[in-house]
Design brief:
By secondary structure, this protein is an alpha/beta fold. It has 4 helices and 5 strands, in the order αββαβαββα. It folds into 2 domains: 42 residues, no CATH class; 77 residues, no CATH class. Strand 3, helix 3 and strand 4 form a beta-alpha-beta unit.
């Protein structure tokens, strides 16, 4: 999370973090120093629904079960998911899941997905 936050921050983006704990019981290292707006949910794993249903496109980095749950919720909601170095798993073709191996590939797929979304509007 910190690396993604740092990249967004250095690129001039506004970094918003959906945090698992509440303000009175923060986890060590949360929020990281690159976060502009921390949102303390107190929802722990349930925050994955917010993470998955908010974006137009979800980019998932190699992660654990929490990442997989966010990916599943996003795909069930019709949100395209781009997996960068994610573990291999099988899905039916109706899911909008794209695997990539490089950041450049991920950026190209993000641009393509945004173009598709703009065509629908």
């Amino acid at each position: 999370m910190e690396a993604a936050s740092e990249g967004a921050h250095r690129g001039g983006g506004l970094v918003i973090a959906i945090l698992p704990t509440d303000r009175k019981r923060p986890l060590q290292g949360y929020p990281n120093k690159f976060v502009d707006i921390p949102i303390y949910t107190g929802m722990y794993d349930a925050r994955n629904v917010i993470n998955a249903k908010t974006p137009h496109i979800l980019v998932a980095l190699d992660g654990g079960p929490g990442t997989l749950s966010e990916m599943a919720v996003a795909m069930k909601s019709g949100t395209p998911v781009i997996g960068l170095n994610c573990p291999h798993f099988e899905l039916s073709e109706e899911n909008d899941f794209i695997t990539v191996n490089t950041v450049a590939e991920a950026i190209r797929k993000i641009d393509e997905s945004i173009a598709k979304l703009n065509d629908k509007d």
